Amino acid sequence: MRFLWATPFVLWLLLASAFAQPAYDLVIKGGKVVDPHTGIDAVRDIAIRDHKIAAVERNISEGKALKSINAHGLIVTPGLVDIHTHVYAGTGLKLAYDGDNSVYPDGFTFRSCVTTVADAGSSGWRNFPDFKDRIIDRARTRVFAFLNIVGGGMAGKIPEQNVDDMDAAAAAAEVKKYPELIVGIKTAHYEAPDWTAVDRAEQAGTTAQVPVMVDFGVFRPERPYEELVTTKLRPGDISTHMYIDYIHMLDSNGEVSSYLFDARKRGVVFDVGHGGGSFVFAHAVPAVKQGFVPDSISTDLHVGSMNAGMKDMTNVMSKFLNLGMSLEDVILRSTWNPANEIKHPDLGELSVGSPADVAVLRVEKGKFGFVDSLGGRLEGRRKLECELTVRNGVVVWDLNGISRPDWTVTGTFNPTPQWDGTLPAKR
């Protein structure tokens, strides 16, 4: 009788197991996980459930996941964080004074393993709501913004010189209105010999309690760069375009000027901001060799830069890899560091419970060429390639189809898509 009683129970357990949901939505197996925040630098499996990192372990069974991806031989990192981009597209925005130069984020982020960007001042306090409505709210990329101190943003050379449109109170009020999206204040391209743009940006940043990012504009001896980073900028403020040609970086002996190390000690953040005209090997090569490395690696993504020497985030990262920085340091400065610079320590890391933004990179070995803003070429032996990008738990870029089954087992054409392209509410 006991056997007869147990038989239906066993059958029930078998049926329950057969119809039980897998423990994880996605498992990325066998890649070398490099996560500077948690200190992991080893082969690990990463499991994702409900759009969050659910486990990081030595071995997670493929049977526990709806989908398993083989990442053996690849580098698995947090989704890359690019804090200097221009993605307020379709507005007639004159970023380089010669027409609309911004890009729509999703077309240029995922393919370079970037899951989070900050737009660096394309919009100001007057047009940020339009930027939010047309771009930020509709992008699958996570988009933050540095708000331009000029109310109209980067509307061209002449509007960006209008000190009457540099309203610190209005800018600070806009930051407080959208604290979940606006991460700082930006000033850029100011050509006058005075400090008005910087001073008003600093006033807004202090009032709103956010960092200020400075693109120092055109060189003027009346306002030297040394004074900017040793006196004007507060701890946590960001000097972007750190390897631009006109900065007084090297002394007559080719040594990095001591004031730069002093500025870093007092908390000033130095960001790459490569751009189309803001990165030269003549500064970057000796500076990196002497220990003046970036706090954060960023692209200054726009139409001009992506079609010139900058290209994309992985290309900029590769430059520093070939200048002698370790892979771990390059990843740190492309994930955890920039996330903290914009006060988002919830990003740029892979601890359990964090958003499931993951980059899978391949380190290619061979002979490659890298170009700076003056057209100078550096030959390198290693290059990073974005193999796969996961944003919010969903595969959004797959260069070689490693997340897909072989075509021989996919069956006949099904006009009903498995995934409709939508994502849950962004975080």
Textual characterization of the structure:
Strands 1, 2, 3, 4, 5, 13, 14 and 15 form an eight-stranded mixed β-sheet that branches. The protein has a seven-stranded parallel β-sheet with strand order 6-7-8-9-10-11-12. The protein has 427 residues and is of the alpha/beta class. It has helices spanning 2-19, 128-134, 168-177, 196-208, 225-232, 258-265, 281-289, 303-306, 313-322, 327-332, 336-341, and strands at residues 24-35, 40-49, 52-57, 65-70, 75-78, 80-85, 114-124, 142-148, 182-187, 212-214, 238-239, 269-270, 358-371, 377-391, 394-398. Helix 3 runs parallel beside helix 4. Helix content is 23%, strand content 26%. The chain has a domain at 79-346: Metal-dependent hydrolases (TIM Barrel, Alpha-Beta Barrel), CATH 3.20.20. Mean pLDDT is 92; it is low at 1-6 and 419-423. The chain contains eleven helices and 15 strands.
